[in-house]
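Just wondering, can you check both lines?
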Amino acid sequence: MNTISLTAVNNSHNFWTRHGFVAIDDPALQKKLNTYDLAARFLLKNIAAS
């Protein structure tokens, strides 16, 4: 499985979910995400192999 990931900040996670990204809730990442802002989310998208 091929994936791409990003950190959505400034309440942009809805934009990215409309483009196929899925929020990953990983408690181990939450402290680091909060250093961006409290709305930061880690997102993944599966991509087809070329």
Helices lie at 13-17, 27-33. The chain has a mean pLDDT of 92.
